[in-house]
Specification:
The protein folds into two domains: 236 residues, f41 fragment of flagellin, N-terminal domain (Up-down Bundle); 125 residues, no CATH class. The model has no long low-confidence stretch (mean pLDDT 83). The protein has eight helices and 16 strands. It is elongated, with a radius of gyration of 41 Å. The strands form five sheets. Strands 6, 9, 10, 11, 12 and 15 form a six-stranded antiparallel β-sheet that branches. Strands 7, 8, 13 and 14 form a four-stranded antiparallel β-sheet that branches. A two-stranded antiparallel sheet has the order 1-2. With 449 residues, the protein is α+β, with helices and mostly antiparallel strands.
Length: 449
């Protein structure tokens, strides 16, 4: 086969160009530190690197969300701590105010201090996040959740209304996990169970218009068996009416001996006529400070007796005709409890009857504050659990990000030792190609003529 001079030149030039291109590619790899400069360098590795990069970016977004959620929940936690301190201060002052030896002026001073605590609590309830959203408004982050209305006499402070909802704002913190970063104000402030959480025990008067005339004060009582209480309340006891279900302890006196009897004072729904109280227990001699079990033994109980699994304690000396009611708890806002406490402290105590009534009602308000403190504790425990979960997720995200970085490094990063060796080899090859091209290009028949 005959090879022309032009073929020799073209082959030599192409060889040099290939070596230069390879050398240029190695030089670019060494300067960038990357093995893959284009997908064509390794299509399989390039596709895998794209998948890993996308997964890494998603993980980074989840990590940013975890940081945002942590910041929000830490702010919520700090506000819950402040709220606990406010409620504890209210409780302490209420206990002090319960001392009937204090003068009306002393109680007025305590009421003024509690008004300041009320405003402080309202300020906490309307706290905003760094983004300007209200922490305790549920899903409605732009709406101020709590506002005070005008005072209606004899109240001195207005009723606090809630403009938020019952939801919690969620943030995606993992592929399959959302985290609540707020607390609904309705749960924290508005839906506080009265009394001991199951029922409210309070003085209910003597006759139709008089307060209790004796010195008897009823405790908030306790539920010894929650199952029994729920069963008796919802069907185990045959209430005479379906509305305003309540039991009443009514006192009487005979031959100088004070006794009590349990009555059913539930009522039918309107417009039915009110029913008189129905005796559902025997007449029992009263001993101050002794537990009174809530057990019915007479009709309309469906059997020999219905045990409510609960008891109350009455101290002091109730007068004949004095009554105490026990009714199921309903929700009551923490604001209303403090407001009623303030109004109670502003009323003058000008008689022993008024002092006894004051003591009983103050005990009820203290129970409400205890319920509010318990609710704050429950919510704060939930927030703490979320923060711990976020911390665990953050640790896992850090480990996962390191794994992604290692995978990307294995796929696209350059092996410098090998690349430098290849670069040196290509340099030698290029020099050899250049020298051989010079030698070949110098061959000519004219030199031999």
């Amino acid at each position: 086969m005959r090879i022309s001079t032009s073929q020799l030149y073209a082959a030599g030039a192409n060889g040099i160009e290939r070596r230069q291109n390879q050398l240029l590619k190695l030089q670019e790899q060494l300067s960038s530190g990357r093995r893959l400069l284009t997908p064509a360098d390794d299509p399989v590795a390039a596709a895998r690197a794209l998948e890993v990069t996308q997964a890494k970016d998603i993980g980074a977004q989840y990590a940013r969300n975890q940081g945002i959620a942590t910041d929000r929940l830490r702010l919520v936690d700090s506000q819950l701590t402040s709220l606990t301190e406010v409620l504890q201060s209210v409780r302490s002052r209420a206990i002090q105010a319960g001392n009937t030896v204090l003068s009306n002026t002393d109680r007025q001073a305590i009421a003024s201090e509690l008004e300041a605590r009320f405003d402080e609590m309202l300020g906490i309830a309307n706290t905003r996040s760094a983004e300007g959203e209200y922490l305790f408004s549920g899903h409605r982050g732009a709406a101020m959740p709590f506002a005070r209305g005008a005072a209606v006499p004899p109240a001195t402070t207005g009723f606090v209304s809630y403009a938020g909802d019952d939801g919690e704002r969620l943030l995606q913190v993992a592929a399959s996990q959302q985290m609540a970063t707020s607390v609904a104000g309705s749960e924290l402030f508005m839906q506080i169970r009265e009394g001991n959480g199951s029922f409210v025990a309070a003085a209910s008067g003597n006759g139709t218009a008089l307060a209790n005339q004796g010195s008897g004060v009823i405790s908030q009582g306790s539920v010894l068996d929650q199952g029994q209480w729920e069963a008796a309340l919802n069907g185990g006891f045959a209430w005479q009416g379906t509305e305003d279900r309540a039991l009443q302890i009514r006192f009487s006196s005979a031959a100088g001996v004070s006794s009590y009897q349990l009555f059913d004072v539930s009522q039918p729904p309107p417009p039915a006529a009110p029913l008189p109280a129905a005796a559902v227990g025997p007449v029992v001699p009263f001993t101050p400070g002794q537990a009174i079990p809530l057990v019915t033994t007479q009709p309309p109980a469906p059997s020999a007796g219905a045990d409510f699994g609960a008891q109350v304690v009455i101290t002091g000396s109730p007068a004949a005709g004095d009554t105490f009611s026990i009714r199921p708890s309903v929700n009551k806002s923490a604001f209303q409890t403090v407001q009623e406490m303030i109004d109670l402290l502003r009323r003058p105590l000008d008689s022993s009857t008024a002092r006894t009534e004051f003591t009983g009602r103050m005990q009820g308000h203290l129970a409400g504050i205890d319920q509010a403190l318990a609710r704050v504790g429950q919510v704060q425990s939930s927030v703490g659990t979320r923060l711990q979960t976020l911390e665990d997720l953050s640790d896992n995200a850090t480990v996962l990000d390191i794994q992604y970085q290692q995978s990307l490094s294995d796929l696209v990063d350059l092996d410098y030792v090998r690349a430098i060796s290849d670069f040196t080899r290509e340099q030698v090859s290029l020099e050899a190609a250049q020298k051989s091209f010079v030698a070949i290009s110098g061959l000519s028949l004219f030199k031999y003529l």
